[in-house]
Amino acid sequence: MFGADSDSDDGPSALPLHDCCETNDAETLRALLAPPSTDGDAAEGDADPAANEDAEEEKEDGDRGDDEDDEDDEEDFDPEAEEEEEEEEEDGAAAFGAALTAGLARVSIDERDREGHTPLHVALLHGSIDCVNALLDAGAKSYVTLEGSPPLHIACAMSGFERHETFALEAVKALLPHVENESTQDDYGRTALSVAAQHGVLAIVQTLVNDFAPPNEEDTVEVYINLKDKTRNRPLHWACAYGRGDVVEFLLKSGADASLRNDNKDNALHCAVRGGDAKCVEALLKLHPELAQEQNAQSQTPAQMAAARGRPVIAKLFKLSVDAAADEDLKRFIIAPDVCFLHHSCPPITRLEKDTPPPENVNRLTTLLNPSNGTLRGKEFSELNVEYVSEVKPAAWVDILRCHEYAYLKKVQKICDQLPDIRMLPRAIGTIDGDTAVCSQSFNAALAAAGATIEAVEKIIAGETKKVFCAVRPPGHHSGPLGPVGTPGDPIGTGSHGFCLINNVAVAAAYARCVHRNKIRRIALVDFDVHHGNGTEACVQNTAPSAPQFKYQLPIGGGTFSMHMYRPWLDETDPEEIMFASVHGYGRRELQHHFYPGTGPTKSTKGEYDLDTEEIPAWDEDGVVEDPMHVEAEVRVSTAKGEQPWVLDVGMEGAGKRSERGHAWRRVWKGKILPAINAFEPELIIISAGFDAHAKDDIQGPVNLGVKEQDYEWLTTELVKIANAHSDGRVISVLEGGYRIQGGPISAFGRSVATHVRTLFQPNAEKYDAARAKTEFNAELRVRREIREKREAEEEAERQAYLERIAEEERAMMESNDAMDADDANGEKREAETDPEQTPSKRSRRGVPVDYAALNAKIEAEAAAKKAANTES
């Protein structure tokens, strides 16, 4: 993450321990960690005479060896220069020593850098076992988490890289003596054993199980092996889902329960079929044949799943055949142009707070593609026959001019060309607007990014593959025909670029329709970035003619003029054969919650296409924001003529418990978007893959949609099913946003992208079934309604019980007062009998009548406060 090109030149490092761990400089690290010496220097007379004699002999030998070169070098010898050089070396050594001392004085062994790494985290992420041991010997805390992961989990995660397998095993063994409770879970509820099982190094799994020390009598090794995470997956589920046959066999022998279900009601055999490893399936069928008859949440048995996914070898184990085999032998491509690494949005990045970079920076690609620990370099991708492409032709102007106006492109190019070469002056950064920074190579990087998507189209058309992921930057989905896209009423071409220069997905779609018109016609562009792809939507809408008005101002006055805008991708059939669909964050104006870019109100330009279910969806509870005034404003300012492309937007805000927001996001896709894409019947699906809707990504602010890795996995699977049904499985995914890169290979961004790409690349021939999707969605809505009704009934029962308790207390008080009044009356009567002239007093102890309206309001206020507290949790 912070390589040599990111080091500051401003003097000694402020975080020397981190730097040593990153560069595997264990010697310097130990020197920094060593306590200062209290003994004086040894006297010269104490030196070993034999050692001195050997040293003298070595010196003489060295002098004799140098004599042969002295004559040749004599004319170049400069005593004064050599003396200066020696002084510089001495000064440098002194400065280095001072720097080490100063650095040690400023930092502690567990100090965190700007992204939350301690030195131990850095050593683990860079595979330095010597530094790990040095830190542990010096007392580094083995329980400090990074992005929710304890060090033991990080060590296990590093086993996902083939080059780090040996290191990961050594690190686990080094950490275990320092771990108080091995069953500690990360913020996803996963144990280190689950992480190790996922990545499949048997020796690590065996070490964790065999060396397990129960923290108490109840937590036996069997309990440890079957501990569930927050999605109810166990280590066995993870091993099966990732095809780790050896680990599966070991866990089964060690007490793993194969019948346990996860949140999707998958047993271990379901996971093994999904993982695609015949060895896992065979091992489970041998020991637990009954699992083959169990159904998951989609009413599928493992056998039915194997047949649907087109895995003939696995289906044969169930004595079934497949109708259509998955494309197991085809290559998968990750296209990541080297030029994209030259787009710098800030000066060199360091670990210091003062050097905090903008969200969109080069380390996003480093997180994915670093040869050492980039998440797209994990061994799971080599197992999927993935080929990496780093050299691509930049997009030709004719291809980007189908989507963008020439004047806009020349403006961006000119700004970049006027900047000094970033490779010579790494701080030479310019800006296009307040959000979007560029350097001398940014326009070239944008051309390469667009060129990558064109290369993806070519590989699919040539039959080399059906799945491509483009790891590119700068992103593009906010870039419209004139660059920025504002809200209705804003001057056209004004606003923020949102880090985007050229719309990569639009360029790819236009290229496919135009150049390969005989093979691809109907294209669906699908965007799951948390920010509305307003640029893509504008490019799609610009395939139909319009005449927007532009304002101008002159010294003698101003006015408006109309300019015809029309960028067809092929011909007049564009509006019929292009679709754009997006689910994104959206701010509520009435609450003054602005969320960039402020566009994309919930709408469909070709009528509603919600699933016609028996149960009525509660979209407001799921966070769907309706903004009819914004939709009306879009219609009012539009100058479009004729038929328009199908644009389907759903704006959302985070609603309800954070832990349940991912399910709400899924329901929106299930009920509003996926059925529409399926009905459109695309011949190619192009995804704007943004990962900033992740629950950990701070760029969302209060809108937080709470999406997790498993949600991206689910959506990717559904889009692949639609592609299988209509597009011969052809999908191109292009990186857009996603900024939670802290932790590198264990970051939310890195793991989300890896999950998406792995799911995209997995052989899977299953097709989208509209009838089944409707049945499943209706069942989910029914369960949700029943849960809601049960909760409301419980709240009402609690309310009634509270009212009855208050009424009972009031009755008891009244009875008590009546009894006291009776006693007083009897006492007064006796007093009157003894003193007839005394006047009886009129005392009453009756309580004040209960105000039931006020009481009910109080109860409702308490219920609302309780609901708000549950939402925050």
TrEMBL record:
<dbReference type="Pfam" id="PF00023">
    <property type="entry name" value="Ank"/>
</dbReference>
<dbReference type="InterPro" id="IPR002110">
    <property type="entry name" value="Ankyrin_rpt"/>
</dbReference>
<dbReference type="InterPro" id="IPR037138">
    <property type="entry name" value="His_deacetylse_dom_sf"/>
</dbReference>
<feature type="compositionally biased region" description="Acidic residues">
    <location>
        <begin position="41"/>
        <end position="92"/>
    </location>
</feature>
<feature type="region of interest" description="Disordered">
    <location>
        <begin position="1"/>
        <end position="93"/>
    </location>
</feature>
<dbReference type="GO" id="GO:0005737">
    <property type="term" value="C:cytoplasm"/>
</dbReference>
<dbReference type="GO" id="GO:0000118">
    <property type="term" value="C:histone deacetylase complex"/>
</dbReference>
<dbReference type="GO" id="GO:0040029">
    <property type="term" value="P:epigenetic regulation of gene expression"/>
</dbReference>
<keyword id="KW-0040">ANK repeat</keyword>
<dbReference type="InterPro" id="IPR023801">
    <property type="entry name" value="His_deacetylse_dom"/>
</dbReference>
<dbReference type="InterPro" id="IPR023696">
    <property type="entry name" value="Ureohydrolase_dom_sf"/>
</dbReference>
<feature type="region of interest" description="Disordered">
    <location>
        <begin position="810"/>
        <end position="850"/>
    </location>
</feature>
<dbReference type="InterPro" id="IPR036770">
    <property type="entry name" value="Ankyrin_rpt-contain_sf"/>
</dbReference>
<dbReference type="Pfam" id="PF12796">
    <property type="entry name" value="Ank_2"/>
</dbReference>
<feature type="repeat" description="ANK">
    <location>
        <begin position="115"/>
        <end position="140"/>
    </location>
</feature>
<feature type="compositionally biased region" description="Acidic residues">
    <location>
        <begin position="1"/>
        <end position="10"/>
    </location>
</feature>
<protein>
    <submittedName>
        <fullName>Ankyrin repeat</fullName>
    </submittedName>
</protein>
<feature type="domain" description="Histone deacetylase">
    <location>
        <begin position="384"/>
        <end position="742"/>
    </location>
</feature>
<dbReference type="GO" id="GO:0004407">
    <property type="term" value="F:histone deacetylase activity"/>
</dbReference>
<feature type="repeat" description="ANK">
    <location>
        <begin position="231"/>
        <end position="263"/>
    </location>
</feature>
<dbReference type="Pfam" id="PF00850">
    <property type="entry name" value="Hist_deacetyl"/>
</dbReference>
<dbReference type="InterPro" id="IPR000286">
    <property type="entry name" value="HDACs"/>
</dbReference>
<feature type="repeat" description="ANK">
    <location>
        <begin position="188"/>
        <end position="220"/>
    </location>
</feature>
